[in-house]
Every structure is written in structure tokens, then in C-alpha cells.
Amino acid sequence: MKANCREAEEILRMFDRKIKKSLKNTNYQEQEDLEQEIKLKIIEKIFTVKFSDPPSFWCFFKLSNINKT
């Protein structure tokens, strides 16, 4: 299921604090550009990656046993 615009905005809000904290390691002149690039990459991934529900415990357990043999 692909995300819609509201979900993308919410995800960006969730990452905003981490992005700003990480930008402190960058030159002041480049911070705004880098922030835009990071947000653009996040948005690209949100709309291109197909998200699915994780497997149940037993399904995961069966798959892990198959891979061991």
C-alpha cells in the first residue's frame, strides 16, 4: 500500500527533530540545502516503497526453520 500526502507529511514531522539534530554536524551555509535533500529522499522512498504488513510470529517461525535446513 502506497502512502498518501497526509501520511508523508506526518512521517516528515516525525523525522524533523532528528534531521535538524543531524544538520548541526554540517556547515551552516549547507544546512538548508541538505535538509531539503534529506526530506526529498524521504518523500521519494515513501511513495516508491511498497509497504506490507509484517508476518505473524508463526509465519516468521516457519520461514526461519525452512531457511535453516
Tell me the layout of helices and strands:
Elements: H1 5-23, H2 28-48, H3 57-68
Helix pairs in contact: 1-2
Please explain how this structure is put together.
The chain is 75% helix and 0% strand. It is an all-alpha fold. Helix 1 (5-23) packs antiparallel against helix 2 (28-48). The longest helix is centred in the middle third of the chain and has 21 residues, at 28-48.
Q: Which sheet architecture does the biggest sheet show?
A: none
Oligomer: single chain
Low-pLDDT residue intervals, each spanning 5 or more residues: none
Number of helices: 3
The average pLDDT value, as a whole number, equals 86
Task: Report, as a whole number of angstroms, the end-to-end distance.
Answer: 33 Å
Outline type: elongated
Structural class: mainly alpha
Give the C-alpha Rg: 18 Å
Q: How many distinct beta strands?
A: 0
Task: Name the helicity range.
Answer: over 70%
- Strand percent estimate: under 5%
Order of helices and strands: HHH
Question: What distinguishing features does this structure have?
Answer:
69 residues; single chain; 75% helix; mainly alpha; 3 helices; elongated
In short:
The protein is mainly α and 69 residues long. The protein has three helices and no strands. The two termini are 33 Å apart.
